[in-house]
Design goal:
Order of helices and strands: HH
Low-confidence stretches: none
Number of helices: 2
Mean pLDDT: 85
Largest sheet: none
Distance between the termini: 39 Å
Keywords: Membrane, Transmembrane, Transmembrane helix
């Protein structure tokens, strides 16, 4: 079980660093809002995070 937790934490940190490199601080904020919204089952916060991520992705394309 501890090995799985370490792997998941490493993946989360890696994803966060990738988002920050590509989309800056706003990408990290959007990802955190999406994750918190999903974890807390709060569709408003999750939706806000998802919309911000979509806007960032559309802007870079």
């Amino acid at each position: 079980m501890p090995l799985i937790a370490i792997v998941v934490a490493a993946l989360a940190i890696g994803l966060e660093q990738l988002l920050q490199m590509k989309y800056g601080v706003m990408g990290v904020i959007a990802f955190v809002a999406l994750a918190v919204g999903i974890k807390a089952k709060n569709s408003m916060i999750g939706g806000i995070g998802a919309v911000i991520l979509v806007m960032l992705l559309a802007q870079s394309g």
